[in-house]
Amino acid sequence: xxxxxxxxxxxxxxxxxxxxxxxxxxxxxxxxxxxxxxxxxxxxxxxxxxxxxxxxxxxxxxxxxxxxxxxxxxxxxxxxxxxxxxxxxxxxxxxxxxxxxxxxxxxxxxxxxxxxxxxxxxxxxxxxxxxxxxxxxxxxxxxxxxxxxxxxxxxxxxxxxxxxxxxxxxxxxxxxxxxxxxxxxxxxxxxxxxxxxxxxxxxxxxxxxxxxxxxxxxxxxxxxxxxxxxxxxxxxxxxxxxxxxxxxxxxxxxxxxxxxxxxxxxxxxxxxxxxxxxxxxxxxxxxxxxxxxxxxxxxxxxxxxxxxxxxxxxxxxxxxxxxxxxxxxxxxxxxxxxxxxxxxxxxxxxxxxxxxxxxxxxxxxxxxxxxxxxxxxxxxxxxxxxxxxxxxxxxxxxxxxxxxxxxxxxxxxxxxxxxxxxxxxxxxxxxxxxxxxxxxxxxxxxxxxxxxxxxxxxxxxxxxxxxxxxxxxxxxxxxxxxxxxxxxxxxxxxxxxxxxxxxxxxxxxxxxxxxxxxxxxxxxxxxxxxxxxxxxxxxxxxxxxxxxxxxxxxxxxx
Length: 558
Known about the structure:
The chain is about 5% helix and about 55% strand. The chain has a 22-stranded antiparallel beta barrel. A two-stranded antiparallel sheet has the order 20-21. By secondary structure, it is mainly β.
């Protein structure tokens, strides 16, 4: 990879000239359709109202007593993101909590309708049925839109439509699942600021379409000595400006219990990707990660190697790297754990993953994977009793092709990914504390501090120095369900390369409250208040979000 780093840097820095030829809106662009994110709606069939699991990023604390459940591999099939803390803010009206299904366990299906300010509308439906021979079928449909937005009314409206079908086959030995979905997201490049003439809506319109199909097979018997999971799927993405991406990913994870204290683990991934945007770019990645784990009540050691091969035909890259993996966890006293370790990886950056972070991307954006050369970390975590838990962690990581987002030149309404082809160093301090009162109240507070030391980029554009979140959920009398959260960003910087001006964006405070009230066995009312502070903050330069926005409606379960 080192021999090709100058080429990637050149591609990143000269990308502005590429963008300049592509920034001017094309007359009558082909109208394709699209989408960014995938989500699944899960219906809780328990007969009790239970608080959802806290949204925590604590490393799992090993049990002091060995059990068969510890041998179960915790599978995660999503791409591993660049772990630089990007708490979710609310640029538009968010849907209310999906707790209506939990409140009406007798009725597994529901229809939801709602409306709010900014011309917002929510329509959602879920249908699930259990067929013969352990077959479960589920289908969901959701549409959420805002007719107007924070800038020039309809010129900053947005819409998101999602459809998904899931089939599951369950036995005592295996679980087989297949998913097919389609999502469409429509929005506008409204970050044009004050201009003598308002742009034509067709010139700033964007649509994203995502089609996906996945099938997976995993072991359902946790008592087996061998545990495994295999999943493969295809995702197709296209937009309104002739960009498209084909992504086929296959993931395998397995474990083998050698003794009561020693386990052999293996993870393998294969991704075949083709991005088309004026040029065709074939980008593949293959990963195998064998490790061994030794676990006792006082000491847990995981050690292995992560071998990754990446290819990029356009950049003429065929690079293979091996990273050591070591994690040590010591529990000298009760439920207090001290941990330390090192790991590394090649983290995939695709058009879809970058759009998930910033949807206002420029056409023909360069793509390059980020190499985490090494992440050295350590800290303490545990349970303090009385429902309290905590974690403190320090991490020092080195990256190659560390990326940031910044406005393009000369069209500042779109964004480019800028890569640092040198060695970027990131120091991250994390503090987290949680409190849980069973079946009634949960609270979790996390704060991250970042320091960026970059080689070739002037600054970590649009990345925060401080990121925090505080989430809470509360149930009153099994009829009133309340969730409240607060997100905080500080230290965002951006650069306008047209005026050669650097901007320090104001700190972001985003507070939200969602309330569900159950009116009876089949009806529930909901209201969602977002951005209560009413701040039209800018997570990305020139893109203010909606101020105080709300959404209310009713759910019927059947």
